[in-house]
User: Which sequence fits this backbone?
């Protein structure tokens, strides 16, 4: 039996999932509230041998790790810019994280398309106006025959491209050379340059993992090239965009609209946040992967990593050097 702590399960959802049975026999504590204070976390996690994370909701850095002497394993899914891997390795803490190649997040793809429709047809604004006694507040835009730009042709980008094709849109792709070749092989048009991509698209949706090579990859200059009628959608990660650039670009009118599910600092609890106070922006609170089906898929992997560790054969280890100093 291991002592397992799970952070940031806002709605106590995990215990209701079938995959939670994978943790039968272990001592599991689930924390519902979000805390980033190192002292509070150190107190909560002082006996934890295993730490389960909801993606990047909580930062796990050296000052915290150094106060968790019992910790042996961090189990999560996808990339890990929020975890100090070097500190984990130095302290003998194994990080297991399935990269789930070839498995798209349909929840994130579906939310992306919902945001596209909501922004283009002003659905949230029209609903809010109707509740105040106003009948129609403007004219939206249809999708048919518009140009949909997919920035990053990976697991989710592929799905979004298919949605665009189903809606009769022209799909244009910009990505790394290898994935541009994959997009062309699957019948999609690729942009001749990054500059042309931002200038020509009516809607641009970002679909890249956040790694050092992609951090701030969308610049203020890129956004300034977009049409005043264009829409930028970001359901991936906020730091893909240069800090502050999206708010400034929207104020300057290029692009004319945005739909976002991710923010530079989360959770966003400040009602004066600029994106929440722009009539041309549709905002959701990072719910791209927040669906029961997606949780079941993701946490089945996360819990499998724990059972593998408990059996003495860790899987999906991202810091194999930690195995040399593994805690018993």
Assistant:
């Amino acid at each position: 039996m291991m002592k397992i702590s799970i952070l940031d399960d806002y709605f106590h959802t995990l215990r209701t999932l079938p995959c939670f049975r994978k943790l039968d026999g272990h001592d599991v504590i689930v924390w519902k509230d979000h805390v980033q204070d190192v002292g509070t976390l150190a107190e909560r996690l002082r006996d934890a041998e295993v730490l389960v994370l909801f993606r990047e909701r909580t930062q796990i850095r050296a000052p915290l790790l150094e106060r968790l002497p019992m910790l042996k394993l961090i189990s999560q899914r996808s990339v890990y810019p929020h975890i100090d891997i070097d500190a984990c390795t130095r302290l003998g803490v194994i990080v297991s994280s399935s990269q789930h190649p070839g498995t798209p997040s349909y929840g994130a793809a579906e939310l992306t398309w919902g945001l596209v429709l909501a922004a283009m047809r002003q659905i949230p604004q029209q609903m809010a106006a109707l509740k105040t006694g106003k009948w129609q507040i403007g004219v939206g835009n249809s999708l048919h025959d518009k140009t949909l730009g997919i920035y990053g042709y990976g697991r989710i980008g592929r799905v979004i491209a298919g949605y665009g094709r189903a809606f009769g849109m022209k799909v244009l792709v910009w990505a790394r050379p290898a994935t541009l070749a994959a997009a062309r092989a699957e019948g999609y048009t690729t942009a001749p340059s990054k500059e042309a991509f931002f200038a020509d698209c009516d809607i641009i949706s970002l679909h890249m993992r956040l790694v050092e090579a992609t951090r701030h990859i969308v610049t203020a200059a890129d956004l300034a090239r977009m049409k005043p009628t264009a829409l930028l959608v970001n359901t991936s990660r906020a730091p893909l965009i240069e800090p502050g650039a999206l708010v400034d670009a929207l104020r300057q009118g290029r692009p004319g609209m945005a739909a976002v599910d991710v923010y530079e600092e989360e959770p966003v609890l400040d009602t004066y946040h600029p994106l929440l106070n722009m009539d041309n922006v549709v905002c959701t609170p990072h719910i791209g992967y927040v669906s029961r089906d997606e949780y079941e898929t993701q946490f089945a992997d996360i819990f499998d990593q724990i059972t593998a560790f408990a059996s003495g054969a860790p899987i999906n280890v991202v810091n194999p050097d930690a195995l040399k100093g593994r805690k018993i």
Summary: The longest strand covers residues 73-77. The radius of gyration is 21 Å.
